[in-house]
Amino acid sequence: MEPKKLGLLINPIAGMGGAVGLKGTDQMVAEARRRGAVPMAGQRARVALAELLDLRDQITVYTCPGGMGGEVAQELGFSCIFLPDGEHAEETTGADTQRLAQQMAENGIDLLLFAGGDGTARDIYAAIGTGLTALGIPAGVKIHSPVYARTPSDAGQLARRWLEGRLTAVQEAEVLDIDEALYRREVIDTRLYGYLKIPFARGYTQNRKAGTPLSEAAAIESIAHEMVGKMEAGVQYLIGAGTTTRGIMRLLGLKNTLIGVDLICDGKLLANDLYGKQMLEAVRGKKTRLIVTVTGGQGFLFGRGNQQITPEVIRELGRENILIAATREKLFQLRGQPLLVDTGDPMLDQQLRGFYRVTTSYGESMICEVR
């Protein structure tokens, strides 16, 4: 049997802006490095490829040398064919992604597995349209597009089923992206750029992100009254990103970072827009609770747009100090699916699994599973 042709394309700078609070990496790589960011996309691709290790003899990986795929594939022992575009610089561009994707199409690969965020998906679409079957490994800061698997492990498992021939169904999934410059000014402008053809199996790929309707305003205010009413004196509270948690800051009359994390104590603002190391220093050794909400339509608590809440911060807090708030409508949109975590640390993800009480209104809550 002829080996399956797997295209592997990694955007090595994807996600670098997340943990350091930049809300994206486009045109911000230098600042991300200044803040201490380290590349993570290669590691997330490694987790996905680990699901294919016992198929190595049946797969040939088409990629290029270095950080865009070859380094990871070779480390894991896959047979590689390096495409003629050559090795890329560490800080790649969209043109590099498009060029490599086009060469993969010319080589007739069976599946293009790519690691990045919404910008990477846009570049893939611009290069190949629906001409190839593709699948995203989530590695970016903002991932609204349903062309991505829920986690790197899910991406690997779905790719395995496709390459083994146990799965043949496909669907055209949306490629969505936002304007990062506007996003950093807390203006969310999501646009549809096209569609990619992806393997289809329920439970592996994420839903598209859904916004919060204006009709939810009363429910958000009700949640805010419940959360504020239960705040304890002398305890710090990290207020996570999102419109639901913004209601808490509005009720307290405090300046809020819609797409960041703020710190308050006894009704007073201690800091706005904390990230990574800053956050860890602010909570270490101090009684602190974290209030987070659910990503609309997707169900993520961690890993989509709030990567500044790093695994180190979550471990310092402890799962018992994680408070979840979401409107009933937002939970009903998930149609019974569990809430999700994708912190970038598989062991921590496992530790966070279980059942949590979610505040849905004043005096009301629901028990939801986190998986």
Brief characterization of the structure:
The protein has 371 residues and is of the alpha/beta class. The chain has 13 helices and 16 strands. The chain folds into two domains: 4-199, Probable inorganic polyphosphate/atp-NAD kinase, domain 1 (Rossmann fold, 3-Layer(aba) Sandwich), CATH 3.40.50.10330; 214-370.
Question: How would you sum up this structure, described in words?
Answer:
- Helix content is 30%, strand content 24%.
- With 371 residues, it is of the alpha/beta class.
- A seven-stranded mixed beta sheet has the order 10-9-8-11-13-15-16. Strands 3-2-1-4-5 form a five-stranded parallel beta sheet, with helices on both faces. A two-stranded antiparallel ribbon has the order 6-7.
- α3 links the parallel β2 and β3.
Q: Output the CATH topology of the largest domain.
A: Rossmann fold
Which stretches are poorly predicted, pLDDT < 50 over at least 5 residues? Answer: none
Query: Number of DSSP strands?
Result: 16
User: In percent, how helical is the residue content?
Assistant: 25-40%
Using the CA coordinates, give the radius of gyration: 21 Å
Spatial shape? elongated
Helix-strand pattern: EHHEHEHEHEHEHEHEHEEHEEHEHEHEE
CATH evolutionary superfamily of the largest domain: Probable inorganic polyphosphate/atp-NAD kinase, domain 1
CATH architecture of the largest domain: 3-Layer(aba) Sandwich
Q: Number of DSSP helices?
A: 13
The neighbouring-strand order within the major sheet is 10-9-8-11-13-15-16
CATH secondary-structure class of the largest domain = Alpha Beta
Domains, number: 2
Structural class of the helix and strand makeup?
A: alpha/beta
Proportion in β-strands: 15-25%
Main beta-sheet strand count, sense and barrel state: 7 strands, mixed
